[in-house]
Amino acid sequence: MSLSVHQPFYGYLRHWSLQRPPFLNCPDFFFSGQPQREALAALQYFAGSNWKLAFLTAASRSGVSHLLDHMVSLRGFGSSPVDIILTRTAGTGSISPLQQLGSVLGYGGRKDITQQMIDAAIQQSDKQGIRTLWFIENCPVSAVGVAAEFAQRHRNFSIVATARPEHRPALQLNAGMCGMQIELESMSQHDTCSYVTAALQQAGSTQAIFSKAAITRLHDLSGGLIGEIAVLAESALTISACNGLSRVTPSVIEQVSENQTLHRLHLEHESEDIQRHAAA
Asked: Distance between CA 258 and CA 16 in Å, rounded?
């Protein structure tokens, strides 16, 4: 039996005696493997340093969104008075980072937010000695220069721009200032095994659902990217349950990986067709 990678089917929870999905849609579960710990340590160092700009480089599906959400939930780094602002850029039609920043700083949904208005809001925190870190996820090239200017004008205001490795050179070029380099790397096989075990346990599992060989295959096919691991593992649970299996096997992991690859190719072809029709 074959299911689409993204087809919802929660009957598998009963099959595995789980209380909730273990890998997807779990905002309160944060796994801290070696890459996550190193990235958080680097960001903590950045927050206490004189650096004004940092580039957090992460590949697609490396879990950077979840890492940033976790940082926001911490509300600072240890005893340091740090205010963390997180804005996200989803695409060409999304609200600009400047508008998002102004909204967080107290200007609501106003569309006439100016740099002077944001400067005034930043100065209020600056007077209180509070360090403000502005995290811009998927930072566009058009925004990094403006963001860097804010950091240069305000003593306690710094920027962390996240980007994929191939986009970082353009951001560095347009920033107009040097930036600290931080990377969120892929996980080791040991971390992959620990992540699968921890995710299943927090979902209520008391048994080893994935065979050791399945976890090894899961790590190999995901490249150690935690987001990719989560999607493949959740799909493997679904397909294995539909087939009445007592454990997830390497062959199931290979099947869901192939399904996911086909799904992505389909989406890419659809996107190309839309672009061709738009240009016609």
From this structure: 23
CA distance 105 to 125: 10
Sketch out the chain's domains with CATH numbers.
14-24+187-279 (1.10.8.60), 51-184 (3.40.50.300)
Rg (CA), the chain: 21
User: What span, in angstroms and rounded, lies between the C-alpha atoms of 132 and 256?
Assistant: 43
For tokens 């389909």, name the residue: 266
- Name residue 158's beta-bridge partners: 133
Residues 142-183 pLDDT 10s = 899 999 999 999 989 999 999 999 999 999 999 999 999 999
| Rounded distance between C-alpha atoms, residue 224 and residue 62, angstroms | 8
Whose structure tokens read 């100065």?
123
Prediction pTM value: 0.84
Contacts of 157 (CB under 8 A, 6+ apart): 52, 122, 125, 126, 131, 132, 134, 150, 151
